[in-house]
């Protein structure tokens, strides 16, 4: 793979270059210190892997992505700290690294990228761009299945069920999507978007709850007539959330 | 003997001193020309000033009291006049009133009743307008005595009753005692009703003994004894007079003594104990001659004549009577004057009473006014207290608010200084340094970093920091930034030698956001071939410290780039807020100046006035 590194801190570029020396599958074809420079240089290099610092002196690296004509890039974001843009990066299923960069994490990300197919890259990038711009309710989540990436509008999700290391998504149109990530990961991503962990293995969209039934130990009746168990200890908390 | 009230303005503090003056002064003062009061005042002042020590004002009045007690009436009056004059100077109306009343007493004793009433009424005016009921009651008493003396019994009774009422309301036991005594005298001498007189005397004695005051006991005993003489209870009278004489020795009052001697002599004459009677007559004559008291002298001469008649020594009797008539001649003028004065008083009092009845309505109204004013005053005081409390509360609240704001701003400051962008990028820089250099140098950077973090944490909680510490923080900050920016800039920290860096405190990290700005904004955009430079200088000013950051970076202009990075302008806003909060606490006064250099770069000045 041909990597291009964009960061306005020279030492980060140096560090990434040093790390990449250990990975034979990836070679560095160029570096840039600003948005402007990156937009100029990237098309000339035929790079297919971008390491992008999120905050650059003259703008955000998302600008670089949207300015590039063809969008078949693997992208790893690099950031000094957690901020709102990171949220969009995560629901769009992009990889990211935090500074200072942990060598083991770096290696793991690169290994995964090398194996991964690139077919739906463009749709993911579009999803990312939309997620960066749009308000939180209408965001899209990229669900990575064994074969492909599926983009789903967050309000379409009714509930999720944990299945060992997999998570099943139940959508309004009746589809069920199984993702190879733990429910914990999605709880982190979706809690501030109107979702609630009603049970150890259940995550529900609060706006899709039809009623709360007290019998049989208490359960939630969802809009698709599914019964979702509600832990006795969580009744009060959920009622508070419902107002 | 009647009790007149001198009004003791203030407790006599230097009584030993006054006594010594009272012994020395009167003779000197009396030798001065009689008609020139200013002369007396001057002379007395001179004596007082050149005396042993300067006498405080209240002691001038004290001298008067002392003279009065010794029967030196004129001298007493001069002192009261001086005191009045002096109180006039300091505008103390209450004391002026008291002195007027005291002067009236001296005139009354000299038989100058018209002047006396005049002064009493002046005093009354002052007391009623100032609401000094106690002094008012005393003046009523004295007026009662005065009318008693000029045989205006109904008026005397009226004033005594006024006085009695006031004193009852004021629970003035001593005052009640003296008024009862005066009523006794009134009933004894004017109404010639011995029973009633005795009743009042005993009541008076009861009150005096209640408050355990011996001062008037001699006087009262003498009064009671005179009734006993009249009602032929001779032995009881003599016993009482012996006691009175003994008490009188203590108070050293010539008039009182002569009274006691006269009564004793009378008692002995009645019981035909001529030898004893003669002894007391001689004693009485001696002291009244010594003090040149005409009336007592005549009385004693009368008694002498009576005695000589009883002894059938008619020759001597004639001589005595002759002597008496001579004395009476010399008294004539005085008595004439007295008689005229009495008439004048009667005329005046009639007029005054008319005025008084006119004034009464006004007084009633003004009393109502007074009550209303009192109510208003209470209301005003109450509102004032309420207002004061409210103000206090508001001040406290705004202080608290300022404090809260301070805390809030501190938090914001901490967040901006622990700027994650800087922190993690700095760590990234250290990481790279580790990868590229030897471990010892790398470790130094790591230690610098941890030191900076620790200092920032400490500083954000502190209201102030020593210049020493502040400059250390900024130095490690600059050093790390230099690493991050691969030596794109040099820096220099200059501290004025005149500053005691260990002991001079300033608010922490004021200038740090601007150094950050100079680096992130100014240095980053510097063309590749340019070497950046940042200078921090800390100098002593007239009343504080000046912090200055100067750089040769790109400045604020958009020449080298677009807008300021968000966190930098954010930090500048926080600084503004912080300055506001700090200035509110009144410990420091901070002014901030930012200007762009003509050639290149920015100068930022913080003028920190240290107020406490």
Relevant terms:
heterodimer; A: 243 residues; alpha/beta; OB fold (Dihydrolipoamide Acetyltransferase, E2P); five-stranded parallel sheet; five-stranded antiparallel sheet; 8 helices; 33% helix; B: 612 residues; five-stranded mixed sheet; two-stranded antiparallel sheet; 7 strands; rod-shaped
Quick summary:
The complex is a heterodimer of chains A (243) and B (612). Chain A has 243 residues and is α/β, with parallel strands linked by helices.
Can you put this structure into words, describing what you see?
The complex is a heterodimer of chains A (243) and B (612). With 243 residues, chain A is of the alpha/beta class. Chain A has 2 domains: 2-130, Rossmann fold (3-Layer(aba) Sandwich), CATH 3.40.50.2300; 138-242, Beta Barrel (OB fold (Dihydrolipoamide Acetyltransferase, E2P)). Chain A has helices at residues 10-20, 35-45, 61-67, 84-91, 103-115, 121-133, 183-190, 235-242, and strands at 2-6, 27-32, 49-53, 55-56, 59-60, 74-79, 95-98, 140-144, 149-153, 157-163, 166-171, 176-179, 195-199, 202-205, 209-213, 219-222, 227-229. The model of chain A has no long low-confidence stretch (mean pLDDT 87). Chain B has 612 residues and is an alpha+beta fold. Chain B is built from 21 helices and 7 strands. Chain B has helices at 15-30, 37-50, 57-69, 73-89, 93-109, 113-130, 133-149, 153-170, 173-190, 194-210, 217-230, 234-251, 254-270, 274-290, 294-310, 314-417, 420-436, 439-461, 467-484, 512-523, 566-584, and strands at 465-466, 489-495, 505-506, 532-541, 544-551, 588-596, 602-610. In chain B, the strands form 2 sheets. In chain B, strands 2-4-5-7-6 form a 5-stranded mixed beta sheet. A two-stranded antiparallel sheet of chain B has the order 1-3. The longest helix of chain B has 104 residues, at 314-417. Chains A and B meet through helix 1 of A and helix 17 of B.
């Amino acid at each position: 793979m041909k990597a291009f590194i964009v960061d306005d801190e020279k030492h980060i570029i140096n560090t990434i270059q040093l790390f990449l020396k250990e990975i034979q599958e990836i070679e560095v074809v160029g570096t840039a210190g600003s948005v402007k420079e990156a937009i100029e240089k990237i098309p000339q290099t035929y790079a297919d892997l971008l390491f992008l610092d999120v905050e650059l002196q003259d703008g955000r690296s998302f600008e670089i992505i949207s300015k590039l004509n063809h969008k078949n890039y693997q992208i790893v974001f690099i950031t000094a700290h957690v901020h709102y843009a990171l949220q969009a990066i995560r629901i769009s299923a992009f990889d990211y690294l935090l500074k200072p960069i942990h060598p083991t994490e770096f290696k793991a990300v690169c290994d995964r990228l090398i194996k991964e197919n690139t077919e739906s890259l463009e749709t993911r990038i579009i999803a990312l761009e939309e997620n960066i711009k749009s308000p939180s309710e209408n965001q899209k989540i990229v669900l990575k299945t064994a074969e492909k990436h599926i983009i789903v509008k967050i309000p379409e999700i009714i509930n999720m069920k944990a299945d060992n290391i997999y998570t099943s998504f139940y959508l309004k149109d009746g589809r069920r999507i199984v993702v190879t990530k733990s429910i914990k990961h999605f709880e982190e991503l979706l809690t501030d978007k109107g979702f609630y962990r009603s049970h150890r293995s259940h995550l529900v969209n609060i706006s899709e709850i039809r009623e709360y039934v007290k019998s049989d130990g208490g359960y939630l009746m969802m809009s698709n007539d599914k019964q979702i168990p509600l832990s006795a200890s969580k009744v009060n908390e959920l009622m508070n959330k419902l107002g | 003997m009647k009790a007149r009230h001198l009004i003791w303005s203030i407790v006599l503090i230097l009584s030993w001193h006054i006594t010594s003056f009272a012994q020395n002064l009167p003779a000197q003062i009396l030798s001065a020309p009689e008609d020139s009061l200013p002369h007396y005042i001057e002379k007395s002042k001179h004596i007082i000033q050149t005396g042993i020590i300067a006498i405080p004002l209240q002691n001038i009045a004290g001298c008067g009291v002392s003279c009065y007690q010794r029967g030196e009436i004129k001298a007493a009056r001069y002192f009261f006049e001086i005191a009045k004059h002096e109180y006039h100077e300091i505008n103390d109306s209450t004391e002026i009133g008291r002195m007027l009343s005291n002067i009236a007493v001296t005139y009354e004793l000299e038989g100058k009743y018209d002047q006396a009433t005049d002064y009493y009424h002046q005093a009354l005016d002052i007391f009623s307008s100032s609401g000094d009921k106690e002094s008012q009651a005393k003046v009523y008493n004295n007026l009662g005595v005065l009318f008693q003396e000029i045989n205006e019994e109904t008026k005397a009774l009226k004033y005594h009753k006024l006085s009695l009422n006031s004193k009852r309301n004021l629970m003035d036991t001593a005052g009640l005692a003296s008024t009862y005594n005066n009523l006794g005298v009134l009933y004894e001498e004017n109404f010639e009703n011995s029973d009633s007189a005795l009743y009042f005397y005993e009541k008076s004695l009861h009150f005096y003994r209640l408050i355990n005051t011996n001062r008037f006991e001699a006087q009262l005993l003498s009064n009671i004894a005179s009734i006993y003489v009249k009602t032929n209870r001779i032995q009881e009278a003599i016993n009482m007079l012996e006691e009175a004489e003994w008490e009188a020795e203590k108070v050293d009052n010539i008039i009182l003594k002569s009274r006691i001697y006269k009564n004793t002599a009378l008692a002995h004459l009645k019981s035909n104990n001529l030898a004893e009677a003669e002894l007391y007559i001689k004693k009485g004559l001696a002291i009244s001659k010594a003090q040149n008291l005409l009336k007592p002298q005549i009385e004693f001469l009368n008694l002498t004549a009576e005695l000589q008649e009883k002894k059938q020594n008619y020759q001597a009797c004639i001589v005595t009577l002759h002597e008496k008539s001579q004395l009476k001649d010399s008294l004539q003028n005085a008595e004439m004057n007295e008689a005229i004065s009495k008439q004048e008083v009667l005329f005046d009092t009639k007029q005054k009473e008319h005025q008084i009845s006119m004034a009464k309505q006004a007084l009633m109204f003004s009393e109502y006014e007074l009550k209303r004013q009192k109510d208003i005053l209470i209301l005003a005081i109450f509102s004032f207290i309420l207002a004061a409390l409210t103000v206090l509360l508001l001040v406290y609240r705004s202080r608290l608010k300022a404090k809260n704001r301070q805390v809030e701003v501190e938090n914001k400051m901490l967040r901006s200084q622990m700027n994650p962008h800087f922190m993690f990028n700095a760590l990234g820089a250290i990481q790279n340094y580790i990868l590229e250099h030897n471990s010892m140098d790398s470790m130094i950077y790591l230690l610098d970093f941890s030191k900076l973090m620790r200092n920032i944490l400490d500083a954000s909680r502190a209201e102030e920091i020593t210049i020493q510490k502040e400059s250390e923080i900024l130095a490690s900050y600059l050093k790390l930034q230099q690493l991050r920016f691969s030596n794109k800039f040099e820096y220099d920290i200059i501290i004025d030698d005149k500053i005691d860096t260990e002991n001079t405190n300033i608010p922490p990290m004021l200038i740090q956001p601007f150094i950050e700005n100079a680096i992130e904004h100014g240095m980053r955009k510097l063309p590749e071939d340019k070497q950046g430079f940042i200078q921090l200088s800390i100098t002593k000013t007239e009343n504080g410290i000046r912090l200055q950051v100067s750089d040769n970076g790109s400045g604020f202009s958009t020449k080298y780039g677009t807008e300021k990075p968000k966190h930098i302008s954010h930090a500048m806003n926080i600084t503004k807020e912080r300055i506001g909060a700090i200035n509110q606490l009144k410990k420091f006064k901070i002014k901030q100046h930012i200007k762009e250099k003509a050639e290149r770069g920015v100068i930022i000045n913080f003028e920190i006035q240290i107020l406490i």
